[in-house]
Write a structure and sequence with these properties.
There is one protein chain. With 202 residues, this protein is mainly β. It has one domain: Beta Barrel (Porin), CATH 2.40.160.20. The chain is built from one helix and eight strands. An eight-stranded antiparallel beta barrel has the order 1-2-3-4-5-6-7-8. The protein is elongated, with a radius of gyration of 19 Å.
């Protein structure tokens, strides 16, 4: 787990180090997230993204590049012998495309990303069909991840935008004890400029 946190931190620092050289705008997304994991149920949590353009090399105001990290979990049957905790940590990099649809500062967005995810399930141990709550079984897996999202982005001011997104995500695991998480994902949050502002979206 510590290795994953270190990797995420290093990835999130890359745009910060490159933004001056690339003369790019740098934005951050802060959002809540609900993820359907398929047979593993669902998890809720939060996400943080860094987005930037590349006007020196790729002069297109409709496109952002991004790195995203999500931390989500769920506690099933809390305070009962069968209590099970599921944690899910996907990290991805990708491209977001935005399209202005009205005279208002409203945009349709589409994005696609790929990366890796870590899943951990902690609950009572089982012997055959029989549960033994005195023992804890921990299953975890790390593997490739991808997602595709559609959403809306409404610019509230030069320094704040609101967004809502929905889409599909999937991880690819080889562990027989963990079903590869896959299902719908929903995000709701705010976009805030770190450098520059939303003047190019007016």
């Amino acid at each position: 787990m510590k290795k994953i946190v270190i990797i995420i931190s290093m990835l999130m620092l890359l745009p910060l180090m490159a933004v001056r050289h690339l003369q790019s705008a740098l934005l951050t997304d802060i959002n809540g997230v609900h993820i359907d994991l398929g047979d593993e149920g669902y998890v809720t949590g939060g996400g943080l993204s860094l987005l930037w353009d590349m006007p020196r090399y790729f002069d297109n105001e409709r496109v952002y590049f991004y790195i995203n990290s999500t931390f989500a979990f769920n506690v099933e049957k809390r305070d009962k012998p069968a209590e099970t905790v599921r944690s899910y940590y996907p990290v991805s990099a990708g491209i977001e495309y935005r399209h202005h649809v009205t005279t208002m500062p409203l945009y349709i967005t589409g994005s696609a990303g790929a990366g890796a995810s870590y899943f951990r399930k902690e609950g009572p141990a089982y012997t055959g069909m029989f549960m033994d709550p005195s023992k804890t079984q921990i299953d975890s897996e790390f593997g490739p991840y991808c997602d595709i999202m559609l959403g809306v982005n409404f610019v509230l001011s030069q320094n704040t935008a609101f967004f809502a997104r929905g889409g599909y995500q999937k991880s690819f695991y080889n562990d027989d004890l963990i079903e590869s998480p896959s299902g719908m994902q929903f995000n709701l949050g705010f976009r805030i400029p770190i450098s520059g502002n939303f003047k190019n979206l007016d």
